[in-house]
Write a structure and sequence with these properties.
single chain, mainly alpha, Growth Hormone, Chain: A, MFS_dom, nitrate transmembrane transporter activity
Length: 449
């Protein structure tokens, strides 16, 4: 179906996957690709840690410090990047993050000690903020009737980079060793690959995307088509988001789902090696099954949220999130008790389905919290995921065994489901959003008539 030029100035009311003809679909595809390579680079070290551990002689506490560093700085950068999107636009924000973020990726490959490795691993965490830009960009490009699906699908396909790195990095290392390098040098070559991919995608993002359906923010402000509130626009967005209690409730739920997700990405491969005696490649594939659920499960969370919203509106979206977080917590408790590798993988995949769907359902709700402070809302809630991962990292460090950490974490996740059901909207808010939803549906119907 052809799309009229006028239609490209509005938020898209449908997702046409094979198309790159509109700015909305170009943004959709390039934003998930950008997030994929960022996520790939962010966790590329994790499946190679058994090799890196041997080379640097790392202790349990040092490995825990590395895992915490990988997600700690992301908290700060996610808080900053949302308001930066409001000020400068997602195109500039993403391009800058990709190009600058590639530097510590190369740095960690060149590190010669635990201290330098820890330093660059800390800096790599900044690229985890890519998620906020992904959600921001799809939120401004797609209408209320499909924005949940768009957000969840783009983030889910990007998140699959975490699963891909678990499976592919050991294979890449094996290929480098086969070519003649030893393991001590091979992991360094392998870790350079995601840095190169980030540079390539950064160039593509700058060239082929725009900030919103009508164009780039700086052009729209210069022509008077978009209000220019000055350099304080990002700060205003952030303060407005901070004052909204719903933001902090979703901060907790996102800590419970995305925090668990990235925690599992960091520890799963090592857990399967240490607990069940699997080889590096086998452990990578086992851990990779968790991450690759993002290919469909996160999108499924957004799709179901959009479907429920047809009949139950915003209340239906919050109820779905409650059910998913609760299912995740119970599944994690189950996983913590497994002594067989087969049942451990089955349990991990089961609770992983709830994890990814809950992430999708959270950001299917985010665009409706406060449209005037989207960057601040997306950034704060996104930072919640990393707070959860850091807390889980400290929990792992403080407990005697990983299984004990998984059990305690499962209990916290189960309790956090109450925050989802506590998110409420005023009658005026729901009426306003319902009107926008119906308008989007009417526009979609008119385009297909």
């Amino acid at each position: 179906m052809s799309v009229s030029p006028a239609a490209t100035l509005e938020k898209a009311t449908r997702i046409t996957l094979p198309s790159l003809a509109t700015p909305q679909m170009r943004a959709f595809h390039l934003t998930w690709m950008a997030f994929f390579v960022c996520f790939f680079a962010w966790f590329a070290c994790a499946p190679l840690m058994p090799v890196i551990k041997g080379q640097f002689g790392l202790t349990k506490d040092q490995i825990a410090n590395i895992n915490i560093a990988a997600v700690a700085v992301t908290i700060l950068v996610r808080l900053i990047i949302g308001p930066l999107c409001d000020r400068y636009g997602p195109r500039k924000a993403y391009t800058g993050l990709l190009l600058i973020g590639a530097i510590p990726v190369f740095g960690v490959a060149a590190s010669q000690s635990y201290e330098s490795f820890l330093f660059f691993r800390l800096l790599i965490g900044a690229i985890g903020a890519s998620f906020v830009i992904t959600q921001y960009h799809t939120s401004v490009m797609f209408a209320p009737n499909v924005v949940g699906t768009a957000n969840a699908a783009a983030a889910g396909w990007g998140n699959a980079g975490g699963g891909a790195t678990q499976a592919l990095m050991p294979l890449l290392l094996a290929a480098v060793i086969t070519a003649g390098a030893d393991a001590a040098f091979g992991w360094r070559i392998a870790l350079m690959v995601p840095g190169v991919l980030m540079i390539i995608v950064g160039v593509l993002y700058w060239k082929y995307t725009q900030d919103c359906p009508a164009g780039n923010f700086d052009t729209l402000r210069a022509t008077g088509l978009m209000p220019d509130t000055g350099k304080k626009v990002g700060w205003v967005s952030f303060k407005k988001a901070c004052a909204n209690y719903r933001v902090w409730l979703l901060f907790v739920t996102y800590a419970a789902c995305f925090g668990v997700e990235i925690f599992i990405h960091n520890v799963a491969a090592s857990y399967y090696v240490d607990k069940f005696g699997l080889s590096l490649k086998a452990a990578g594939f086992a851990a990779g099954t968790f991450g690759l659920l993002a290919l469909f499960a996160r999108a499924l969370g957004g799709i179901v949220s959009d479907r429920i919203a047809r009949s139950r509106g915003l209340d239906g979206r919050t109820l779905l999130l409650f059910v998913l977080i609760l299912g995740e917590g119970l599944g994690l408790l189950w996983f913590s008790q497994m002594e067989s590798v087969v049942f451990a993988i089955i349990a991990m995949v089961s609770f992983g389905l709830f994890v990814h769907m809950a992430c999708g359902a959270t950001y299917a709700l985010v665009p409706f919290i406060d449209r005037q402070a989207l960057g601040g809302v997306a950034g704060i809630i996104g930072a919640g995921g990393n707070v959860g991962a850091v807390a889980a990292g400290f929990l792992m460090k403080a407990t005697a065994t990983p299984q004990q950490a998984f059990f305690i974490l499962g209990g916290f996740v189960t309790l956090s489901a109450a925050c989802a059901i506590a998110v409420r909207f005023s009658a005026e808010h729901k009426t306003r959003e319902q009107a926008l939803y119906e308008k989007a549906v009417a526009e979609r119907t008119a385009m297909t008539a």
